[in-house]
Amino acid sequence: MSYSMRRRTREIGIRMALGTKRLTVLRMILRQCLVVTAIRLAIGLTIAITLGRFTASVLYGTSGTDLPRS
């Protein structure tokens, strides 16, 4: 996210120079970050659930939701 915002520094500067309010720019940045985070979270959860089911089918006596014991 840092890299993405660094690349948009000029755009943000131009928007601010043209009179865009700080709150509007902050909303724009937060919206982009939240969308990317939500997409990556959905992909990660999908992979985790799939791998959990695969593990449960391969290992005897386990389920995809077993917690590790210490």
How many β-strands, per DSSP?
Answer: 0
Mean pLDDT value: 88
Q: How many distinct domains?
A: 1
Count of helical regions: 3
Q: Name the helicity range.
A: over 70%
Q: How would you describe this protein?
A:
The model has no long low-confidence stretch (mean pLDDT 88). The chain is built from 3 helices and no strands. With 70 residues, the protein is an all-alpha fold. The protein has helices at residues 2-7, 9-17, 22-58.
Give keywords.
3 helices, 74% helix, 70 residues, mainly alpha
Summarize the structure.
The chain contains three helices and no strands. With 70 residues, the chain is an all-alpha fold.
Q: How do the helices and strands line up, and which of them pair or pack?
A:
Layout (H helix, E strand, L loop, with lengths): L1 H6 L1 H9 L4 H37 L12
